[in-house]
Structures are given as structure tokens and as C-alpha cells.
UniProtKB/TrEMBL annotation, chains A, B:
InterPro entries in the record: GntR_C (IPR011711), TF_FadR/GntR_C (IPR008920), Tscrpt_reg_HTH_GntR (IPR000524), WH-like_DNA-bd_sf (IPR036388), WH_DNA-bd_sf (IPR036390)
Any one GO molecular-function label of the UniProt entry: DNA-binding transcription factor activity
Lineage: Bacteria, Pseudomonadati, Pseudomonadota, Alphaproteobacteria, Hyphomicrobiales
Statement: the UniProt record of this protein carries the keyword Zinc: no
Sequence intervals crossing the membrane: none
Keyword Transcription among UniProt keywords: yes
Annotated ranges, domain HTH gntR-type: 15-82
Protein name: GntR family transcriptional regulator
Organism: Fulvimarina endophytica
Length: 239, 239
DNA sequence: TCGCCATTTATTGTCGACAATCACTGTTAA
DNA sequence: TTAACAGTGATTGTCGACAATAAATGGCGA
């Protein structure tokens, strides 16, 4: 029922409660289980994760600093709802960051990396075929983060993690639900170019991939989405 | 005595206490008044800003999310001490971000912007001549942030704000104190290229500027700096 | 004299309660 | 019927106190 699950802490590894909370919220947002605008009540979270409210507050302030949620004073925390302008800025930033990461990845990409990426693409295609949206989103994001991992720049990697998450929110708001985001297999050719070490082609493909993603946005639709319960219950076609 | 001053809140504008704290710490770090590794005790801060510890904690978690400070559990908050590897990553990220910002700034740079930047350069030179290190650091940072402002991309601007702050920490750790960071007037030609709208030259100059900054680092010196009182009291040239 | 260990002290983490603020419900009046 | 209003409930913000942990001190023994 609740889209946030306490990130199964099997037995060992008793991480700090705040980390569990942030990780759970991040993955929930990354898989469209928490749509933009959702309220994140403190007591609800402290109940769900059975910890004190102070831990929840720490997690929320940390997430707010990463622009994943927005805290309005005396109002509460809400999943961020990027504006059209912010959406464009995020895509511009992604192009900038991913271009560099792709270039940096070329000399570090080993055979194992390439194989793993191909496996991820296959898994993603399978999830898409099976209609498993959350898995598809998760794997698509993991693909981009894998490039960052290969590139070996943690600072840019962190930026990309933030940007891909915000991209997921943007797609949820303005994305075309039918024509899926990464429907076309854009990732396959990217791996090919990375394996071949063809920098110019790789950068062009990454650019094209992101441009295609951005081109699929429709800012008219999401603009007037109040995210009230009425919206969620009446499946009308708008107004 | 204390390098953190409560950011004079004249009369009106009663901002939230957490914002005052974060702003004060950020500016203190940006002006080398708070060296890397400095402990930021909760009670000390709550005393200084005359607010409750909960506000201090919020400010500290927010700063930790921006990698400006580091929170070690049960140990406290410390001004971040970037490793040599992190330093290289930060510079790589800066090159990536600033290249794009410079390019984006070209079509938006008005005459007023150019004039303001020239004024900032003059002020910076004056501060350098007068030996006012904090002012020099502040103005140099402001110059780079001005380009981001002209570019008009808030997301990349926020990234740059974070990166420039981390750069300041890096310079404090590994920078050459004598040969100042931006000693040469690198900023002047950048404004010229921006005004002329010569993209290739502008990007090259920005790249060169950052490369020069990075080349001045000496990772041997700062590596074994424990930041103990003994170090601060004995002005030896380090074993 | 030096090294190790128990004690003390200071700081962070946690907790529950209360106050301040906001959203919502039901009421009243035009 | 609609709009404005007061009351009510729930949520966030604040506070002080206590517990848990780590650092610093001092004492003990070799």
C-alpha cells in the first residue's frame, strides 16, 4: 500500500536509521512509486521505519539539500515538483556531465564492464517487455550510473545521481506515459561506441539520447497538476 | 576571535536561524577563515547564534549533504578535508561545468554584466595588492559565480557554487600560499572573450585558468596535516 | 621514566512533551 | 447557493533533560 518500503535490512548491517530512510525514499522516487508532490509526513515516516522523529528530520533535510524533496516551513516535506524551466536546466546539466563522464569512461572500460552493461540492457528490455515500469526505470538509471562508475569521478558521479533522480521526477510530471522514455534501444549503441573507444561517436550518441528524452516532454500537461487525492481517484482525461 | 560571525542581520529580514548559520559557515569557509578540519561543535554554534541546538543540527546536516563539512558519528562535524583524489575530481568537474556555463553565458552577457565583471576584477586586484586574502578569495569566487548567473542555469550554478567552495578548501590544503591562486590576471582576458563572443577562445581561457590553478597544487605538503594545535604553534617548515 | 588502564569529562544522540502554525470542517450571514 | 468566518484537529517547530559514546585526564604498574 505504502510505496515506501523500509529497504529490507535482512539481518546484519544495522545501518543508521537516517540512511535507511534516505535510501528508501530515493529508490521510491527513482521508481515512480512516489510521484512528485507527495507529502512526506514526519510521523508517518517515523512510524514506518520505527524510529524517532529526529532521525526522519535529518533524512528529510539531507534530501532537501539534494533537491529531491522540498521543505516548506510549517507545511511539511513534499517530493519536489520541478518546473519546466528547472527541467530544461537539468537536461542541460545532464548533457554537460554525461558527456564528460562518457569521455572519461573510455580508457577505463574493461571487458567485464562492457559485459555487465549489456546484461543490464537485456534486463531493462525484459522489464519493459514485461511492463515492469519500476524495474525499467531502475535499470535505466543504473545504466547511466554505471558509466559514471567506470569513469571513476565520484564528484561528477554524485552530480549525475542527483540529476538522474530529478530527471525521473521530470519524466513523471511531463513525460509521455505511452511512448516510453528510453523505449528505443539507445543504450545498446552507446555500449558499442564505448567498447570501440570511439569518443566522437560516443559523445554524439549520449547527446542524442538525452536530447531525445527531453524532446518527449510535454510541459502543457503537467503544469496544472495539483496532485490532490481527487486527481488520483478520478481517472478522467484532465479538467 | 571566532572566525564565524553571525552574518549581520541588521534589523528587518528575520531569516530562519538555520539559514543564517549555513550562510555564515559557507562564507567563513569561502574566505579561509575556517580551515579544513576545524571542529564545529554544536553547543559552540548554538551559543554563537543564540538558537537551539536543533537548528544547528539542521544546518550541519544540510552542509554535510553539500560536502562542505563531514559528520562523523558520535564525533561531531568538521570542515571537510578533500583528499588529493577528490581534489583532482573537483577540478575535472569544474572544467566540465564552467566550460558549459561560459558557453551559455555568451548570448546573455549584457553591457552591464561586462562592466560589473570588470569592476569585480579591479576590486579583486585591489584586495590582492592590499593583502586582504579573504576579500580576494571572496571576489574571485564571485567572479566565477557571476558567469553562472549570466548563463542562467540555476542547476549548474548550484553545482559550481559547491565546486568553488570545495576548491577553496583544496587550495587551503594543497595550495601554494606564496604564489597566489589567481595571481595572474586570468579573469581579464575571460571577460574580453566573453564580451567579444568568441566561444572557442573563451572556453580555452577558462580551461587554461583552471588548469593553471590545479597545476599549482602540492599534494605532498597537505597530506600529513593533522591540524593539531602543535602544528599551529610551531611555525617550522614542516619536517 | 614509560606505557597501559580505569575514571572522569565533554559532546553527540535520543527521547517525550509542549507550543506555534496551518489545513480543514462546520457554521453563519448575505 | 455561495462566501466568509470561527473553531477544531493535525502537523511541524522548539525545548530541556537524559542516555550513549568518545576523548582526555590521572593513576597504576612495570
Amino acid at each position: 500500500m505504502n510505496p515506501i518500503t523500509p529497504a529490507d535490512q535482512t539481518v546484519a548491517e544495522p545501518r543508521a536509521p537516517e540512511e535507511t530512510i534516505t535510501a528508501s525514499i530515493l529508490s521510491a522516487v527513482a521508481e515512480h512509486r512516489l510521484p512528485a508532490g507527495t507529502k512526506l509526513g514526519e510521523q508517518a515516516l517515523s512510524d514506518l521505519f520505527s524510529c524517532h522523529r529526529s532521525n526522519v528530520r535529518r533524512a528529510l533535510t539531507s534530501l532537501a539539500a539534494q533537491h529531491v524533496i522540498e521543505i516548506r516551513p510549517h507545511r511539511g516535506a513534499f517530493v519536489a515538483t520541478p518546473s519546466p524551466r528547472e527541467a530544461r536546466e537539468v537536461f542541460e546539466a545532464r548533457r554537460t556531465v554525461e558527456r564528460t563522464l562518457a569521455r572519461l569512461a573510455i580508457p577505463h572500460a574493461g571487458a567485464a564492464d562492457i559485459a555487465q552493461m549489456r546484461a543490464m540492457i537485456a534486463e531493462e528490455a525484459e522489464a519493459r517487455a514485461g511492463g515492469d515500469k519500476p524495474a525499467e526505470l531502475r535499470l535505466s538509471r543504473a545504466f547511466h550510473m554505471k558509466i559514471a562508475e567506470i569513469a571513476g569521478n565520484g564528484v561528477l558521479g554524485q552530480f549525475l545521481a542527483e540529476l538522474t533522480l530529478r530527471t525521473t521526477l521530470i519524466l513523471g510530471l511531463y513525460g509521455d506515459a505511452s511512448a516510453s522514455s528510453c523505449a528505443r534501444d539507445d543504450h545498446g549503441p552507446i555500449v558499442d561506441a564505448l567498447e570501440a573507444g570511439e569518443e566522437a561517436r560516443l559523445v554524439a550518441l549520449v547527446d542524442e539520447h538525452l536530447a531525445h528524452l527531453e524532446a518527449g516532454l510535454d510541459f502543457e500537461r503537467g503544469a496544472s497538476r495539483p496532485m490532490t487525492l481527487a486527481e488520483q481517484l478520478s481517472p478522467g482525461t484532465g479538467i
